[in-house]
Amino acid sequence: MSDEGTDPKDAALLRVRKFVATYVAKGKYGLYPEEAVVENVVQGLAENLVAHGRMYCPCADVEDSKSKGSAMVCPCTPHHEDIARQGYCDCALFASRDFVAEERLRKKK
Ligand code: SF4
């Protein structure tokens, strides 16, 4: 029998990874094209989930986020605007499909 999910951090990581995979599969954004950066954000979301009960944005001040209700719970309210402006959300977890394609081309050069 697997004991996956018995540790709170493991269970949180599982939840975050599922959320991220579903959001990318069903939504209009891709993952930021740097695996290590994405993993770092995923870890941060899981840590906030364990410590604060919700997936508060890891690149924002958690206490400040808590005062804003669900606005800074991932996927945060400003991420659409941020992606439209700079190609990726402020944490660099989600990115526009165009940004991902451009980065792939740039890396090939
Ligand atoms: S900036 Fe990105 S990772 Fe952070 S909460 Fe918003 S959508 Fe999630």
Notes on the structure:
The protein is mainly alpha-helical. It has a single domain (8-108), classed as Ferredoxin Thioredoxin Reductase. The chain has helices at 8-26, 35-52, 62-66, 79-86, 97-108; strands spanning 29-31, 94-96. The protein has a two-stranded antiparallel ribbon with strand order 1-2. Iron/sulfur cluster is lined by residues 41, 57, 59, 74-76, 79, 89-91, 93-94.
Key structural traits:
single chain, 109 residues, mainly alpha, Ferredoxin Thioredoxin Reductase, two-stranded antiparallel ribbon, 5 helices, binds iron/sulfur cluster
In a nutshell, what does this entry contain?
With 109 residues, the chain is mostly helical. 57% of the residues lie in helices and 6% in strands.
Summarize the topology.
Layout: H1 8-26, E1 29-31, H2 35-52, H3 62-66, H4 79-86, E2 94-96, H5 97-108
Antiparallel strand pairs: 1-2
Helix pairs in contact: 1-2
This protein binds iron/sulfur cluster (SF4).
Iron/sulfur cluster binds at residues 41, 57, 59, 74-76, 79, 89-91, 93-94.
Determine the CATH topology.
Ferredoxin Thioredoxin Reductase
- CATH class group: Alpha Beta
* Rg measurement, Å: 15 Å
Q: Using the 3D structure, state the CATH architecture.
A: Alpha-Beta Complex
Count of discrete alpha- or pi-helical segments spanning 4 or more residues: 5
Output the structural class. mainly alpha
Model regions low in confidence, pLDDT < 50 over at least 5 residues: none
Bound molecules: iron/sulfur cluster
Tell me the name of the CATH homologous superfamily.
Ferredoxin thioredoxin reductase catalytic beta subunit
Helix content: 55-70%
Morphology call: globular
